[in-house]
Design a protein that fits this description.
Length: about 700
């Protein structure tokens, strides 16, 4: 009783104290990535708790302590610690590419082929997949098609974010940080019991900074960022076999970092506005206004789970509403040539029912039904005039099943399949032309099987082979009028690997080959408006691996790397751009042959090295230090291979001191080499343009945990 009274007082205090928050999501389908007593990582990549070495696919998993230690504060930072993945942040929108599979399409109804799940709930919108990591328990990055268990739009892989579940003891955390560019971060969470069988958690977060670029003519701050969000969970346990988790959240992100974009260089390539001023400082721009991208959303979910003596039944219901508004300067210079307004309002309802085995035995199984309903409203204006207004609708259903059978004590076979069917509609109107309105419909379906073989070499080591297929549904172009739907993407993947885990060493190595069909791409028309199309096909192969050596209980080294070779097949109708001759300037757009060109946003080599040292002193205080090095060999931004990101390296570091009362003080630095590299590139008829990533930053953080 004393514990419950104490928890109630703390709940009241936190409700008053925290006025900002972080996005709230649903209860996880299973316990997230954790460390077992023998340093074995527990993951849920196959939607059940398993040791990482027993999972026949490539998984990179981090718990909360590892994320904090490596300076990973948001989903956009995952590339720093995960080889084989690149992330482009285009103004409050997250675009991840895993092993060459990603998307450049930003429009209503356009989902990423790298599916993001937060506590089991699919986050369909790219507009609200960027969020800072408060109250996060773990993140798992699944590489390769996940079409059987995670369904549509997971051809490249999946990112599973798990937040902390409400605890039965009072726990909490408060953190505050200040850094370069007047960056302020404040956040915290509180979790504990309310009464017998009922517990709850509340998390809140706020971030604000003045940006790292300026407008050279108007002296205004650009690349600014502001985020606030709040999330809460209520866990009801009416009996030992039953749990009900209710979740709700609200959040807002104002991010102009990916759209504060400047023309590259000078002369005819820079702009079609003759004589336009282009600052020589790469972190200064010259625009006619301050571009912005605002995303906000709210949602809720209900998970009901009951164990019927060996068979677990679960229902997960979720609803999300997101809004995105952006205003961008498409000519990239201080000339009022082309200003584009985009609005995307999205409503998504999902329902999933699953049955799964819960008792140990030679046969483990899972089956389920899934329903998805999405509506989007996407008007686009150019210089204040309506270009097109799209009202899109998607309705999808799926049935899936998968089982793992222990053929021999050392040999397991996993087989599964999913059938998906989807209908899409696009009703459009425009201000002028014939016709003024149009409506189109399209239906897509796919079978996505998986077969895995796992052989236990010894109690600490496994080898495996997996065949899987992924499916990304076709879609309509929301920013162009009257076009038919583009075809679905499909990926057939073959992967083999070796995994080893002991108290001192963890080693995971895999090799893979992908047959990638009907790639969906985005290009720009003469007015800078987005157009979608299918490339033909691509071939991707590579090697992925990570090695962790726990030299002492206090000292750990992790080395990870990936080699990825991805090229387009026959692609003779690719969108190309070439510099226009003076005095016209800008670019000439034409159709070219991209056959054999490298896939965009696909560096051949990525890698990272992390060194961590944590030690308890004789007086009970603790010291910690972490350094992370990241390497990227460079990649093509565009299919014509003309605009490229050169190779670059980044270094992050943090030093901390923790008192016995759990007050932790940290000094940190990000991009300590002050490397200049792009977080996004846009090539249009107006210009070649780039948004640079954040330069060197540093600051201090104070954290109190209990």
């Amino acid at each position: 009783m004393h514990r419950i009274v104490k928890s109630g007082v703390a709940w009241s205090a936190l409700t008053i104290a925290l006025a900002a928050g972080a996005p709230v999501w649903a209860q996880a389908p299973a316990a997230p990535a954790e460390m077992a007593s023998d340093n074995e990582i527990i993951v849920t990549a196959q939607r059940r708790e398993e040791k990482l070495k027993d999972v026949p696919l490539t998984v990179t998993a981090f718990n909360a302590a590892e994320l904090e230690r490596n300076g990973t504060t948001a989903t956009r930072d995952l590339a720093m610690i995960t080889p084989g993945i690149t992330i482009q942040n285009t103004g409050a929108q997250l675009q991840a590419t895993i092993r060459g599979i990603g998307t450049t399409i930003v429009a209503g109804g356009a989902e990423s082929p790298v599916a993001v799940y937060v506590d089991g709930v699919y986050i369909a919108s790219q507009n609200f997949a960027v969020f800072d990591l408060v109250n996060i328990d773990s993140i798992q990055v699944l590489k390769g098609p996940q079409g059987t268990l995670f369904g549509r739009n997971a051809t490249g892989g999946a990112i599973l974010v798990n937040t902390k579940k409400p605890s039965d003891t009072l726990t909490g955390k408060l953190t505050a940080s200040y850094g370069r560019f007047d960056e302020v971060r404040v956040g915290g969470y509180l979790s504990g019991p309310i009464t017998n069988g009922i517990s709850a958690s509340l998390a809140a977060y706020y971030r604000d900074d003045n940006g790292f670029t300026k407008d050279a003519l108007r002296n205004t701050d650009l690349s600014t960022y502001q985020e606030y969000n709040i999330r809460g969970k209520l866990l009801l346990e009416p009996g030992e076999a039953t749990s009900i988790t209710l979740s709700g959240d609200y959040g807002r992100v104002e991010d102009s970092t990916g759209i504060s974009i400047r023309s590259i260089g000078s002369g005819p390539r820079a702009t079609s506005s003759v004589g336009a001023f282009i600052p020589s400082d790469p972190y200064k721009l010259a625009l006619t206004f301050d571009p912005f991208a605002h995303s906000w959303g709210w949602g809720g979910s209900a998970e009901i789970q009951h164990d019927f003596d060996g068979v677990v039944a679960k229902s997960l219901t979720a609803y999300r509403n997101t809004d995105h508004r952006s205003f961008t300067d498409q000519d990239r210079v201080a000339a009022a040539i082309n200003r584009v307004n985009v609005t995307i309002n999205e409503n998504v309802f999902t329902q999933e029912f699953t049955l799964s085995s819960s008792e140990p035995g030679p046969f483990q199984w899972l089956g389920g039904l899934y329903y998805f309903h999405q509506k989007d409203f996407n008007p686009v204006l150019s210089n204040g005039a309506l270009v097109t207004e799209s009202r899109l609708k998607a309705e999808a259903g799926a049935a899936f099943a998968e089982g793992t059978y222990e053929v021999l004590p050392q040999f397991k076979v996993t087989a599964g399949v999913r059938y998906s069917k989807e209908k899409r509609e696009n009703a459009q109107r425009r201000a002028a032309g014939n016709p003024l309105t149009t409506k189109r419909e399209a239906t897509f379906d796919s079978w996505t099987p998986r077969l895995s073989l796992v052989y236990e070499v010894d109690p600490q080591s496994n080898v495996y082979f997996t065949y899987s297929k992924g499916f990304k549904s076709g879609l309509y172009n929301a920013t162009a009028f009257g076009l038919p739907a583009i075809k679905p993407e499909t990926v057939q993947a073959y992967e083999g690997g070796f995994k080893h885990s002991s108290n001192e060493i963890t080693l995971n190595v895999s090799a893979y080959y992908y047959d990638y069909k009907n790639l969906q791409l985005q290009t720009r028309d003469a007015n800078g408006l987005a157009l979608t199309l299918n490339a033909t096909d691509a071939t991707i192969y590579g090697v992925d691996g990570d090695f962790t050596y726990r030299i002492t209980p206090a000292f750990r080294v992790r080395i990870a790397g990936a080699y990825t070779n991805g090229t387009y097949g026959t692609f003779t109708n690719a969108p190309f751009f070439a510099p226009a001759p003076a005095p016209a300037g800008g670019n000439i757009q034409f159709t070219g042959n991209a056959s054999g060109n490298p896939l965009i946003r696909t560096p051949k080599v990525t890698g990272n090295v992390g060194v961590n040292y944590d030690r308890e002193l004789a007086n009970g205080d603790k010291i910690g230090a972490a350094v992370t090095y990241y390497y990227n060999s460079g990649f093509a931004w565009t299919v014509d291979n003309r605009s490229r990101q050169s190779e670059y390296s980044l270094v992050n570091a943090e030093v901390s001191y923790t008192l016995q009362n759990n007050l932790k003080l940290s000094v940190w630095g990000r991009n300590l080499t002050n490397t200049r590299y792009g977080q996004g590139v846009s090539v249009t008829a107006f210009a070649d343009a780039i948004a640079y990533a954040r330069p060197i930053s540093y600051g201090v953080t104070g954290t109190y945990s209990f």
